Sequence to fold (135 residues):
Amino acid sequence: MDTADIIGKDIPMPETIDIQLKKGVLGLCVLALLAHRESYAYEIASHMSDAIGMGEGTIYPLMRRMQSDGWVSTYLVESSSGPSRKYYRLTDAGRVALDAQRDEWRGFANSVEKVLAVDALLDAAPTVTDPLEKA
Fold:
């Protein structure tokens, strides 16, 4: 089926696509969060759970990958209520990655908005009937 065939039709998004979209934007969201303040993984996971419905299970591997990519650095802070917490701080490379991903996201989101605008126009357009078609 061609994309043009489905524009204007109500097709539910499969849950797996929804999850994949969230996973795809999770790194950008974490970088943006860390650009505002340093944080520890559980706190990041709580913010991401509230914001986009992604929890701890996806945050910890992401944080390890960001650290190995050099996008974040870590340091330990003593905690009065348990073990020390590992805090994450955005590095210069992380800021570059954030800027690049933010630009890419905005371009992508604008393209999606254009498609959605076409969809809305098609929904609002009057239906043209074929004069040869029998009622």
